[in-house]
Specification:
The structure is a homodimer of 154-residue chains. With 154 residues, the first copy, chain A, is α+β, with helices and mostly antiparallel strands. The first copy, chain A, folds into 2 domains: 47 residues, Orthogonal Bundle (Arc Repressor Mutant, subunit A), CATH 1.10.10.10; 79 residues, Alpha-Beta Plaits. Helices cover 36% and strands 30% of the residues of chain A. In chain A, β3 and β4 form a beta hairpin. In chain A, α2 crosses α3. The radius of gyration of chain A is 20 Å and the shape is elongated. The two termini of chain A are 24 Å apart. At the A-B interface, α1, β1, α4, β3 and β4 of A face α1, β1, α4, β3 and β4 of B. β5 of chain A pairs antiparallel with β3 of chain B. Chain A binds a DNA duplex (17 and 17 nucleotides) through α3.
Chain lengths: 154, 154
DNA sequence: TCTGAAACTTAGCTGTC
DNA sequence: GACAGCTAAGTTTCAGA
């Protein structure tokens, strides 16, 4: 088994891919000081380990016609299992992310919708889920920053 | 091959890339009913239009040692420009996303940190920004859903 | 065990229709 | 938008440190 868990090299590779997943292995290798095959093998290992879960495209939601973004705080009935919340929200294509959180609310849900009417529809449907007591929502006025990776400095 | 609406084709291409940005153009083309060069040209156009802003890697923050996630609501001094907030937050690698929002708070900031101590440090530094009156933060207990694209059903 | 070089395979790209 | 050919990258193999 490899002796290094995530070493500096792996972090730099992940960082390079996070900025541009289409960079070639040779190119990344030149930056971190490895050959192309060596970089590929490390990427393969990172995928096996679950550190990298896939490759995706960075999308500007507004440019695709999803103009309205908002966050919905969910207040649930006591004894609602997180898994029940997850299963229910997974059915909404408008839900981009959701987490259970500390504080008054039980879960915080990020939603993209085509317009305000669409957002309202989604909000009402979520509020109507059987385990939901009430909701509180805020609308995004303007997105300031949208990174797809974050963490301690590499 | 049925005649497809152009918008529908673009959306299906984006959807395919969002799920797996490493799929080949030929593979995506087979799904949507186009040749590989045709798909590539549509992707190029989507990039030029700004609908696709880049390609990135899907990372499991926890697997990379970023165990602590939270949201910080920022309450700012009146007459703080959104651009000032953006510029200040851009300096924090721990900030994954930030938006100005409706409601009591001025901005909602998503933060990833290595651990609780690190999160606290970031929180204190953000709270110490000259334009910040006060902050309110919630910690993520468990992420339920983390999609990298969302929107109206395709 | 991890690496790098080279051979091999596949996909990306461009010109043409 | 499709086809075809050229270019470039991904992938595998193998031998060395």
């Amino acid at each position: 088994m490899p002796q290094n868990d995530l070493d500096t090299l792996d972090e730099r590779i992940v960082h390079a891919l996070a900025e541009d997943a289409r960079r070639t292995y040779a190119d990344i290798g030149a930056e971190v000081g490895l050959s192309a095959p060596a970089v590929k093998r490390r990427v393969d290992r990172l995928r096996e380990r679950g550190a990298i879960t896939g490759f995706t495209v960075r999308v500007d939601p507004a440019a695709l016609g999803w103009q309205t973004e908002g966050f919905i705080e969910m207040y649930c009935r006591s004894r609602t299992a997180p898994e029940d919340i997850r299963r229910a929200l997974a059915r909404y294509p408008e839900v981009a992310s959701a987490s259970t959180v500390t504080g008054d609310a039980d879960a915080l849900v990020q939603v993209f919708a085509a317009d305000m009417r669409h957002f309202e529809t989604v909000l009402e449907r979520i509020a109507g889920e059987p385990f939901v007591d009430r909701t509180k929502s805020v609308l995004v006025l303007s997105p300031l920053l949208r990174r797809y990776t974050a963490g301690p400095p590499l």
